[in-house]
Write a structure and sequence with these properties.
about 190 residues; 5 helices; about 45% helix; globular
Length: about 190
């Protein structure tokens, strides 16, 4: 199973502030190991699987290797040990911008096919998504796009519609930047 981690510039955890040790050559970086009980948002190395990529966007995308005990969360995987294998340069080299534009365009296309009253209510979010893409904020663009898509259908299906759009976004990253085949990008355990 492939796992990944989005980090702030310089391989820093955007939430934890933890400085991840980076690979010095062609070999993976040193292992980071958690002690004590694993806990979501509490303890352990938090990584994401291919279908969860869109939930954790930041400046740098890294392929990771994991080992040991693991705890699956709603949109992440908490593991006992992890290490950075390689930075996915395609994300920094225009991939993030292309991703943001793709999110906004995909959501706009869905809105174009939605009932007019629902499409009209999504337009503000779609405008925000496009502006965020233009301004270089892929996380904001992706989120606004997913929320807009969630509002295009049955209110009882909004959570599922949001999750489907986030899955589409994760698949876009996996296929377009990681070279994963489309069917592998959406496989869930």
């Amino acid at each position: 199973m492939s796992t990944y981690k989005f980090l702030a510039r310089g391989a820093v955890g955007p939430i934890s502030g933890f400085q991840w040790p980076v690979p010095a050559s062609e070999e993976p970086g040193p292992w980071v190991e958690a002690e004590g009980s694993l806990g979501l948002c509490v303890n352990g190395a938090h990584v994401c699987r291919t279908f969860e990529l869109a939930h954790w966007l930041s400046d740098e995308l890294w392929e990771t290797e994991t080992d040991g005990e693991e705890l699956a969360g709603l949109d992440c995987l908490v593991v006992r040990r992890a290490r950075l294998v390689r930075r996915i340069d395609a994300w920094q080299e225009g991939g993030a911008a292309r991703f943001a534009e793709a999110c906004a365009e995909h959501a706009a296309g869905l809105a174009d096919r939605a009932p007019p009253e629902l499409a009209a209510s999504a337009r503000g979010l779609l405008d925000d998504a496009l502006e965020a893409a233009r301004m270089g904020y892929p996380a904001v663009s992706a989120y606004a796009s997913a929320v807009a898509v969630a509002g295009l259908g049955d209110p009882a299906d909004r959570d599922a519609a949001y999750r489907r759009e986030r899955l589409w976004q994760s698949e876009w990253i996996a296929v377009s930047l990681l070279g994963a085949p489309p069917e592998a990008a959406s496989e869930r355990p």
